[in-house]
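Side project, low priority. Logging it here so it doesn't get lost.
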Amino acid sequence: MGFSVVKQDGVTLVDVEGQLIVGNRQELKQKVLEELEGGDRRFVIDFAGTGYIDSSGLGVLVSLSKKIREQGGELRLSGLNEDLRTLFELTKLDTLFRIADTKDEALAGI
């Protein structure tokens, strides 16, 4: 499990490898908040390497989305597999987040 943060064309890209669960959600939150406090406003979190997100992971994403929007920024998600896409649809979180199939799609126009 791990998170990597890369800057690309003024966008902060966060790759999530493994599961986003109660045991590591704070690490993701901390990484994104540090970048937000540093002045970054455009974020893409890529889940291409993720197979599972639990309810606490979803909660962190909602919290981050709110904080980023309050600062005038934008958070997009990419790389959700079919199960994760269904999870976002069932929880209606697909209406909160802009979700792209690929990282490149998410970066387009952000």
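Brief comment: The beta strands are 2-8, 11-17, 42-49, 74-78, 98-100.
Revisit when time allows.
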